[in-house]
């Protein structure tokens, strides 16, 4: 019987296939799912689902047969959307719960459209629940050990950043400069918000992260002038934005962040007459609030929700992306 199950395709009722409890994928693109459902309506389910047979005891003491999905979650969801009564399946036998979990994770990891956050969480489950080494995971998915190790690092980011990454508000490439500031959460969040709301590119974000890192290295290697540090903080308190004083042998430069011409006028007014203290990120927060307000007005006028703006551009070339692939989150790329 097991040989028959392993080599045959069966047609079973769609409602008897239960979702995979080990499914590592959390996000399913509704548009793509509907497109697949439309295709299934026209051509049917072309690739069989993989399931295991489960006997469930009913309330009256009887036994009923159900099927637990191992691989094919998108096809199952789309088939239900298409209201298909039966789907083709291959029934696996003899799998333990741990084997089902491994199969489900590996099947999803081999898909190109799995987002980077779900991929990192899947790697983490293989490490924690199966005690896989990074090298073993790499062999199973045809990647390098460095790729696995570096991908796992994104789980150190906050839930807010991980959600933005999952939803496509920032790109996978943007996480590298963000991760450089993982030990400095306040500066990390400022950089994240600049990426999110100013739509800066990956290379621009890298330049900002390198500058922050360089400034920190400079301050560690060369004992900072307490008076300069105090002046930087006073400027930031008065202007409500990030200020950097770059002191040279003779004189120096003051660098002030701004986001619009209006901000420049605000800075000038603040220099002329301000006596109140502001937070260093206040100007960025005002920019974000204004951006959100504009989206709300767009929603009110059209009667439909305004979609979140697309992520800032990943302006690396195809060769640069390929070169970065195995070391996407490697902090050594930012050595000074």
TrEMBL record:
Keyword annotations from UniProtKB, A to Z: Chromosome partition, DNA-binding
Residue ranges occupied by any ParB-like N-terminal domain in the UniProt entry: 10-109
GO MF annotation terms: DNA binding
GO BP of this protein: chromosome segregation
Pfam families: HTH_ParB, ParB_C, ParB_N
Region (Disordered): 288-324
SUPFAM superfamilies the UniProt entry points to: KorB DNA-binding domain-like, ParB/Sulfiredoxin
InterPro entries assigned to the protein according to its UniProt record, in alphabetical order: Chromosome_partition/occlusion, HTH_ParB/Spo0J, ParB/RepB/Spo0J, ParB/Sulfiredoxin_sf, ParB_dimer_C, ParB_N
One cellular component term from this protein's GO annotations in UniProt: chromosome
Ranges annotated as biased composition (Basic and acidic residues): 313-324
Record family assignment: Belongs to the ParB family.
Protein name per the record: ParB-like protein partition protein
